[in-house]
Fold this sequence. Notes:
The protein is of the alpha+beta class and 107 residues long.
Amino acid sequence: MNFILKPLPPSQEIETETVxxxxxxxxxxxxxxxxISTTIPNQLILxxxxxxxxxxxxxxxMRDLNVSxxxxxxxxxxxxxxxxxxxxxxSRSNYYVNIALYNILTK
Length: 107
């Protein structure tokens, strides 16, 4: 059995202008988030949480940062006030949408 490898690099362009534009937006947003989150302990865990999914909930922050409900709510509400997250409510639960990531994924 013979295998033939395709030549590298690929002949077609992999990165498109749209992908690069979205990466630039994500990088800018991440910089803003890092600047705002400097007052929050475990800021890298928080940033990873916010970029893993386009939304988060208080319970996710409580679990991942090992903080109380009040502290998790304070962190998320501060990021909402700064315009980085959008707060919503379904039934009795609040959720917080990462606006920049949502826009990147839906456009």
